Amino acid sequence: MSDQVWPWWPLLPLYPYGRRRTLVRELIPEQLWSFEQLQGVFYVAVPIRMTVARVPGGLLLYAPVAPTAELLKALRDLEQRYGPVRSIVLPTASGLEHKVPVPAMARACPKAEVWVTPGQWSFPLQLPLSWLGFPSRRTRVLGEDGFPHGEALSWHSLGPIDLGLGRFQELACLHRASGALLLTDALVAINQQPPQLFDLDPTPLLFHARDRGDQALLDTPELRLKGWQRLALFASYLRPEALQVPSLGTLLAQAFQPGCRTARAYFGLYPFHWQTSSAAAFAELQPAAGQLRIAPVLERLVFPRTQAAVVAWLRDLARLEGLRWVVPAHYEAPVPCNPQQMEQLAGALAQRNWAPDQGNWAYLAGIDRQLLRWGVVPDRPRVG
Ligand SMILES: [Fe+2]
Asked: Residue 323 in contact with residue 181, Cβ under 8 Å?
């Protein structure tokens, strides 16, 4: 328990708050490792991943997660075998969940260089990186100060895209020795089965598998799957079409029932009602295993008017000889993907109805329209 403590959680108060378990998996033998933790709000928790890549003379950390004692122990084991952490990379300009753990990870690896994506912004105040705890003497900016380990890696930028409030930019990295393309948020393959990380604590799945607040949390493989599908729908669309929010009266009438009077069950408060099958909605979200897609939240809120830039980036990636895998910072990894498959994905995205307004997308579309109306996001975002 104590080695899973993450004292900096109030900086970004997401479930499971002060306790972070870490699942460590070897993705490609002797080359690439995944360190996964859970992160979310009110049990809408999805796995977040740090990828550890072997580079000449040691290791590179791509998109760090919270350096708990448990995580550091596993990392020290890798350092024993392959050499010290030489570089820590923050590969996104906007993804706060990936930025918050970086200063603590930098302190845990005092010899490593810290590389950040240019144009880091913080909201509501624009604070200098050193105020956020980044070590100024060993922090470099990707691109502006070069790129780390050019002999072993190549770097491929999506953006910058002007978002009004700040900018979106993400730096994907091809690790040549394994053929794995590391990236952050732009592409995902949503797991068809509950991710292994939930074996450590399935509570978020069981919480969402219920249909009413007064049902107790039961644990069966079917319920875990149902809970996972709903959780992925929440994380993808924020408010999927099939979801209705019951009235306060119904909510309270179902709360505090016998068997639910525990903090784990949120005392029976379950503010969601699914009108239609969540399994059908999930099948639309992720029709087949290992299929890469743009996360709907990103497509509808970040890229709604920059389809061409996203497609051009994918076409760029499709020219990477030796591409064999994609390793995103969320959901499934490694996802098999060769240049032809990447080209097919680019072609499919170029043709399909981009950032739609209907069905599951309606809630996201409403947010986007409101932001446009307020002039918070630009009508024609600048790219590059
Ligand atoms: Fe992310």
From this structure: yes
